[in-house]
Amino acid sequence: MVFSKRLKQWYLQNKRDLPWRSTQDPYKIWLSEIIMQQTRVEQGLPYYLRFTEAYPNVHALADAPEQEVLKLWQGLGYYSRARNLHTTAIRVSKELEGNFPDHYKELKTLKGIGDYTASAIASFCFNEPVAVVDGNVYRVLSRIFGVETPINSTSGIKEFKALAQELIDHKDPATFNQAIMEFGAIQCKPQNPLCDTCPFNDVCLALKNNQIKELPVKIKKTKIRHRYFNYLVPHFRGEQTILEERTGKGIWSGLYQFPLVETNKPVGEAELIDTENFQELVGDQNFELDIYNENEVVHKLSHQHLHTTFWTVNIDAESLESINFNDLKDYPVPVLIENFLNEFLPEDYK
């Protein structure tokens, strides 16, 4: 079996028409790869088009305010990607005069660019024969070659990288890398792979040994942490409310949210009023508190579930820290807050 030859033949017949496949511009390749991490093409493509329209080159992205970049990223999740994207754009624009490094090792020195992204840029833009290994590639190689080493183990990462590097077409690494990722995305899918029409079904060890559902092997995930979020949605006189910026290294750093009371279990109205955060918000002002969603919204992240309740707090006062409801749309917020606003706000405010 000449693996790369079969793969390339399949790719030329089945590849999807995606905008980043018609360019060798490192900026656009980098942008597409960062956006598409942990994201399906159907979801990521509109973001790629919006970003390339708003920031047609690395200088434009570098010159944009971070808050604007986060707002454009809103809904994609894993917001550290957006912050790293902006940081790297500034470095490439200001320190490297807009030129991305043209080798894998130098690309890895840029913030937010790891093995996979560096391999993609180096091979797609500069024809360097370095193999990409993402979730799709892990799945394809583990099934066809019957590799049972866990893909999220140190030994597994090394083994799969070495195997991919051994198989890569040194004359045309860009097509090989695009092909193996595409093959995993639309042929060797996680669920219900198209084995009947697979060009490797005569040699696939997972198919032969009835291991399609067992491969690839992954070490069990970390225990899920449950957190209880109570968002206070203030309503002051004159259609005013409050948003606060999340800081620190936790989730959603740099995004905005309503004042938050986090508890270790679901709480009722009396318990909420008794919290320090609630007292800081309301003080000695007259207020009216109402629960907005009787059934908590469970927002699932990779290692934590956020059990969320929104509370409206009508306060008979004015606040110097407040903003108009009309201005909420200008702030980057987590998708959890965005979904609430889309339901809560009248059309006039959207």
Notable features of this structure?
Nucleoside Triphosphate Pyrophosphohydrolase; two-stranded antiparallel sheet; five-stranded mixed sheet; 15 helices; 9 strands; alpha+beta; Endonuclease III, domain 1; 350 residues; 2 domains
Can you walk me through this structure?
- With 350 residues, the chain is α+β, with helices and mostly antiparallel strands.
- It folds into 2 domains: 3-208, Orthogonal Bundle (Endonuclease III, domain 1), CATH 1.10.340; 225-349, Nucleoside Triphosphate Pyrophosphohydrolase (Alpha-Beta Complex).
- It has helices at 3-14, 26-36, 41-54, 58-63, 66-73, 80-94, 104-107, 115-126, 135-145, 154-167, 173-186, 205-208, 269-273, 276-282, 335-344, and strands spanning 225-235, 240-241, 244-245, 256-257, 260-263, 287-291, 297-300, 304-315, 323-324.
- The strands form 3 sheets. Strands 1, 5, 6, 7 and 8 form a 5-stranded mixed beta sheet that branches. Strands 2-9 form a two-stranded antiparallel ribbon.
- The relative contact order is 0.10.
- The model has no long low-confidence stretch (mean pLDDT 94).
Give the SSE layout.
Blueprint: H1 3-14, H2 26-36, H3 41-54, H4 58-63, H5 66-73, H6 80-94, H7 104-107, H8 115-126, H9 135-145, H10 154-167, H11 173-186, H12 205-208, E1 225-235, E2 240-241, E3 244-245, E4 256-257, E5 260-263, H13 269-273, H14 276-282, E6 287-291, E7 297-300, E8 304-315, E9 323-324, H15 335-344
Parallel strand pairs: 1-8
Antiparallel strand pairs: 1-5, 2-9, 3-4, 6-8, 7-8
Helix pairs in contact: 1-11, 2-3, 2-8, 8-11, 9-11
